[in-house]
Amino acid sequence: MPRGAISANAVQGALRRKEILELRTKGFSTAAIAERLSCGKTTVKRHLHAALEDLAAENLELAAYQRDLDLARIDRLLPTLIESAEGGDLDAASALEKLLRRRAAMLGYDMPVKYERTDDPPPPIQIYLAGDDGAMLPIGAEHLSLSGGDDDAGDD
User: Fold this and answer.
1) Cα 140 from Cα 3, distance rounded (Å)
2) Which residues contact 75 (CB under 8 A, 6 or more apart)?
3) Which residues of 2-146 form beta strands (DSSP E)?
4) What is the pLDDT of residues 14-23, one digit of tens each?
5) What distances in angstroms separate CA 24 from CA 17, 33, 34, 76, 95, one per listed residue?
6) Contact of 106 with 116, CB cutoff 8 Å
């Protein structure tokens, strides 16, 4: 078979897939489709799965194409909006902010950063005080008090 040629079996399979998908969208059960087309339920399920995978791939391609079109439109608008916003036009500045946020979202720049969790404890916090000569002196935990003063204060 020449390269790029489609076999008769592939064409038949595609037609069967289309027919099964049409019956399913009309509300036929897997068993009813199998009975109507004189094949097994597993065959119907396999064709349905393949048809849905094809549709999902097609939708991803369409979504990527639409995203690329929208990004191109945004990119064409940006220079004019930037110039107007830099000139003091507050409406242009607001529109620019919205477009930049939308562009970042479309490109995934606004996704949260994921950090890998470790079970290691965080490093201790070191506190410094400036000495009389300006040198930074570390303070140890023994010098820190959470009570705000001497525990015996006022007890005479």
Assistant:
1) 77
2) 103
3) 127-130, 136-139
4) 888 889 989 9
5) 10, 8, 11, 44, 46
6) no
Both tokens assigned to 7: 């076999």
Q: Whole-angstrom Cα distance, residue 78 to residue 19?
A: 47
Helix and strand element counts for the chain (H, E): 4, 2
> What does the alpha-carbon distance between residue 124 and residue 141 come to, in Å, rounded to a whole number?
10
30, 13 contact by CB (below 8 A): no
The residue whose two tokens read 């002196």 is 137
pLDDT in tens, 87-101: 999 999 999 999 999
pLDDT over 90, % of the chain: 38
pTM of the full structure: 0.46
Q: State both tokens at 74.
A: 């945004």
Backbone angles phi and psi of 130, in degrees to 5: -80, 130
| Strand residue runs (E) in the chain | 127-130, 136-139
Tell which phi-psi region holds residue 74, choosing left (phi > 0), alpha (psi between -120 and 50) or beta: alpha
* 23-50 mean pLDDT: 91
